[in-house]
């Protein structure tokens, strides 16, 4: 049998064994396009769904059995198997009443589970655009699509439902509530539902098919906070405790562990399988109104996992910042992670990252909010925002948290059974001013909360005194708009990133309102500098730009000490974790990258390598001193000491003769592939010099006689090594032949001069002398 649905609303029943329809065509099934066709598990019922918001169940004869009004345009529908957790709980819900149960998704942005003929879904998820104003208009179809579903599928085991949104996200839904909650969520959504709440559908996992351009990033410091602020100084915890690593490495200094310690500096991180426990990462994309929260996987090659997508804004989010704070809950202070976002909908929103909920919103801007920044340290008492309306606004975070706590306490007392989202309050403003002549691109707050900085497209950056926002200084010098600004953690200075490809460092010790002096200029980017952050307690700078590069700068000399090709397109966003222990970057290529500072680890590897070299060098010297040639050869080759190897080999082959050659053969016979190749490279290099070619050829003879031909022919790069050896061997042979031939000239010259006599003449002279001696004796 074959069942089909058409754009004109018809449902067809076909018999593939014949050419005629199995049953009459159901022409009036739907008044709009049919988007889904399904077959019940028993095989006796056919389900169809359409954009007219209706789901019909047919018998095999083509007659309508039941009609369900879904109330939204249905884009996809799936029949639920009886054994699935999505089908319903045990008991009467599992009663085999013959009713088909199915799931629908569509334009309403909800996943709904239905029983055929019912007037209401027995289970449904929260809407994708929860908290968004109904009359909000999105600027792009992509933004509007983020609140709709286009497809759904059942997981292979039937325990979860996969739904695909219009903005290319794949959401995995599972049932929650009561004792039937799936264990696969592992408590992930325990903050999203209250005690005693009804069963529902929650998102267990999310996959993002298209991040579009990442324009904002911030680390959400959670309970695993690794940065401790004491006396206004950032103290960074070493994730790889040197004492622990030293204790683990003291026992093994020889054998296979030596090879690991002798790795080059570039491979210092090769044996590390995991990154430090990562903080959550909040990301804003250029075309989505959702605040996405990512977490780096422990496996450094597994990338990021999107653990939540928070809805609240009606248009794309342009900026995000995060900070730790505290709220009073049942007369106890509870640490929370706050996030602030600015959007094209002219609003600033305050979020509780751990609970995945919006706490407050701020209205006041009359254009897009392009930048937000929390006050660092001291529980982030306020947040600053700047927008395209040229306005700079200060929002009271502490007051918003207090109002939110009171509002939710009252709401809970009025209705204990209320399972709706928490109340979102309006965030009060502290101060506001028109700061620039053009749009504001970036804002920052000084560590002591006394100054606020703003960067603008009018080519200037300004400092403002808190709390009245009086101008404290102006930074002039950029030839194009200023994209970002940051305060130093250590001294009274501020860094600005300009569209003129230059980073400038300014002295902000004088806050009388005049022009601030420029201390340094950093030039190395080939495109506009789009973000800048201070690292290492103000000793370094990190920047990203339109050229896609990530640069690390030395503030003392103004030079770039490291350069990385971070992204294939513009690198719009950068976030700093702690004091630079790790950095996250995002760009127009839609990629998100996490960078780790391995300076301490590399330094430790360098020290270990140096210490190991000292110990082995001493062992090599001792072996030479006592005349242990075999041990000296092994150590010299293992430590990559070609001069020491040549010295020991010369003594053995030249002074000891055949006995030394036999000892060397015994050593070479035990060499592995890597060591054999290294030795052949030594011989090739020594063979290029006439002074060492004699020893080189003797060592080569020992190697060739010690190793079988099959093993030698399978060595990596043996063809090139043989070519190099052959070329200089022929050259040395020709040189020796010429030297031998040149000795004939000496013989000829001596003969001509009479200094060299023939052998026959010498014999005659000897005979004459003997005759004379005999005569004298007589």
Write the layout of secondary structure elements.
Blueprint (H helix, E strand, L loop, with lengths): L1 E4 L5 E4 L19 E6 L5 E6 L3 E6 L4 E6 L4 E6 L21 E6 L4 E5 L7 E2 L16 H5 L3 E6 L6 E5 L3 E8 L23 E9 L5 E7 L6 E4 L2 E4 L5 H8 L6 H6 L18 E6 L5 E6 L7 E7 L6 E13 L2 E12 L3 E6 L4 E7 L5 E6 L7 E6 L3 E6 H18 L10 E2 L2 E6 L5 E6 L5 E6 L3 E6 L4 E7 L5 E6 L5 E6 L3 E6 L10 E6 L5 E7 L4 E6 L3 E6 L4 E7 L7 E5 L4 E5 L5 E5 L2 H27 L3 H10 L3 H14 L2 H12 L3 H15 L5 H14 L2 H5 L4 H35 L6 H19 L1
Parallel strand pairs: 24-28
Antiparallel strand pairs: 1-2, 3-4, 4-5, 5-6, 7-8, 8-9, 9-10, 11-12, 12-13, 13-14, 15-18, 16-17, 18-19, 19-20, 21-22, 22-23, 23-24, 25-26, 26-27, 27-29, 30-31, 31-32, 32-33, 34-35, 35-36, 36-37, 38-39, 39-40, 40-41, 42-43, 43-44
Helix pairs in contact: 5-6, 6-7, 6-8, 7-8, 7-10, 8-10, 9-10, 9-12
What does this structure look like?
The N and C termini lie far apart (141 Å). Strand 43 and strand 44 (592-596) form a beta hairpin. Helix 7 packs across helix 10 (693-706), helix 9 runs antiparallel to helix 10 (693-706) and helix 9 (673-687) runs parallel beside helix 12. The model is unreliable at 90-95, 133-139, 178-197 and 222-275 (pLDDT under 50). With 778 residues, this protein is α+β, with helices and mostly antiparallel strands. The longest helix has 35 residues, at 718-752.
């Amino acid at each position: 049998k074959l069942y089909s649905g058409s754009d004109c609303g018809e449902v067809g029943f076909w018999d593939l064994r014949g050419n005629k329809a199995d049953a009459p065509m159901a022409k009036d099934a739907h008044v709009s396009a049919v988007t889904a066709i399904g077959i019940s598990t028993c095989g006796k019922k056919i389900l169809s769904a359409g954009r007219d918001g209706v789901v019909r169940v047919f018998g095999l004869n083509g007659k309508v059995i039941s009609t369900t009004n879904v109330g939204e345009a249905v884009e996809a529908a799936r029949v639920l198997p009886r054994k699935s957790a999505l089908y319903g709980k045990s008991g009467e819900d599992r009663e085999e009443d013959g009713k088909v149960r199915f799931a629908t998704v569509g334009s309403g942005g909800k996943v709904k589970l239905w029983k055929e003929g019912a007037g209401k879904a027995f289970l449904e998820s929260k809407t994708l655009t929860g908290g968004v104003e109904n009359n909000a208009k999105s600027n792009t179809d992509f933004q509007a699509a983020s609140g709709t579903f286009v497809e759904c599928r059942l997981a292979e085991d039937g325990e979860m439902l996969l739904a695909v949104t219009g903005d290319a996200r794949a959401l995995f839904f599972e049932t929650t509530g009561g004792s039937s909650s799936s264990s696969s969520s592992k408590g992930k959504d325990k903050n999203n539902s209250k005690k005693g709440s009804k069963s529902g559908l929650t998102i267990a996992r999310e996959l993002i098919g298209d991040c579009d351009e990442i324009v904002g990033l911030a680390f959400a410091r959670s309970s695993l906070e690794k940065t401790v602020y004491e006396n206004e100084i950032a103290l960074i915890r070493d994730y790889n405790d040197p004492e622990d690593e030293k204790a683990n490495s003291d026992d093994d200094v020889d054998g296979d562990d030596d090879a690991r310690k002798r790795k080059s500096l570039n491979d210092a991180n090769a044996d590390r399988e995991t990154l430090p426990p990562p903080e959550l990462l909040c990301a804003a994309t250029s075309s989505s109104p959702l605040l996405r929260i990512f977490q780096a996987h422990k496996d450094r090659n597994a990338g990021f996992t999107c653990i939540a997508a928070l809805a609240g804004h009606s248009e794309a989010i342009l900026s995000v910042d995060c900070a730790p704070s505290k709220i009073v809950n049942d007369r106890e202070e509870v640490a929370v992670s706050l996030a602030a976002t600015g959007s094209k909908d002219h609003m600033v929103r305050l979020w509780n990252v751990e609970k995945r909920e919006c706490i407050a919103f701020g209205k006041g801007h009359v254009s897009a909010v392009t930048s937000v920044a929390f006050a660092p340290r001291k529980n982030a008492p306020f947040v600053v925002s700047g927008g395209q309306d040229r306005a700079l606004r200060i929002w009271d975070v502490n007051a918003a948290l207090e109002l939110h706590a009171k509002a939710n306490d009252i709401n809970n007392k009025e209705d204990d059974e209320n399972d709706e989202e928490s109340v979102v309050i309006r965030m009060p403003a502290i101060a506001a001013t028109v700061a620039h002549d053009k749009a504001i691109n970036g804002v920052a707050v000084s560590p002591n909360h006394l100054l606020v900085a703003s960067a603008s497209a009018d080519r200037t950056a300004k400092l403002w005194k808190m709390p009245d926002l009086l101008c404290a200084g102006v930074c002039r010098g950029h030839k194009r708009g200023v994209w970002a600004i940051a305060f130093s953690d250590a001294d009274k200075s501020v860094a600005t990133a300009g569209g003129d490809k230059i980073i400038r460092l300014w002295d902000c010790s004088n806050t009388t309102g005049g022009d601030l002096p420029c201390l340094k200029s950093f030039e190395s980017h080939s495109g506009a500098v789009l973000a800048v952050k201070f690292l290492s307690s103000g000793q370094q700078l990190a920047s990203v730009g339109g050229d896609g590069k990530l640069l690390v700068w030395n503030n003392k000399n103004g030079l770039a000490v490291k350069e990385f090709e971070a992204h294939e397109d513009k690198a719009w966003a950068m976030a700093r974790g702690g004091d630079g222990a790790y950095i996250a970057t995002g760009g127009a290529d839609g990629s998100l990258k996490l960078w780790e500072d391995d300076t301490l680890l590399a330094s430790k590897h360098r020290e270990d390598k140096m210490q190991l070299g000292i110990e082995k060098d001493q062992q090599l010297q001792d072996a030479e001193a006592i005349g242990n040639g075999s041990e000296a050869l092994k150590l010299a080759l293992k430590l990559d000491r070609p001069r020491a190897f040549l010295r020991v080999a010369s003594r053995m082959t030249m002074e000891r003769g055949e006995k030394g050659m036999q000892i060397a053969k015994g050593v070479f016979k035990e060499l592995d592939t890597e060591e054999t190749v290294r030795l052949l490279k030594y011989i090739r290099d020594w063979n290029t010099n006439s002074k060492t070619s004699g020893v080189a050829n003797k060592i080569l003879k020992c190697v060739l006689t010690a190793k079988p031909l099959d093993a030698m022919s399978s060595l990596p790069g043996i063809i090139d090594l043989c070519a190099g050896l052959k070329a200089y061997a022929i050259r040395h042979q020709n040189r020796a032949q010429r030297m031998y031939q040149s000795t004939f000239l000496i013989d000829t010259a001596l003969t001509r001069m009479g200094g060299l006599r023939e052998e026959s003449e010498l014999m005659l002279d000897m005979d004459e002398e003997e005759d004379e001696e005999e005569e004298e004796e007589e």
